Amino acid sequence: MRNPQSPSQTPRDSGTALATVLVIVAVMSMIAVGVVEAARFSIQRTDNQEQMDQTRWFLLGAEAYATSRIERALKQSATEVVDLSGWVGQTITLPLDNGAMQITVSDGGNCFNLNSLVEQMEDSPLVASEAGIARFSRLLSIVGIPSARTLAISLADWIDADTVPGLGGAEDQAYGGSGAAYLPANQLLGDVSELRGIQGFDSGVVTRLSRLACVRPSAAANAISINTIRADQAALLSAVFGPALPLASAETIIRTRPPGGWRDLDSFFADPRLSGIELSPESRTMFTLVSRWYVIGVRVHFADTVETSIALVDTTSGHGRIVRRVFGASTNGLL
Question: Which pTM was predicted?
Answer without folding.
Answer: 0.83
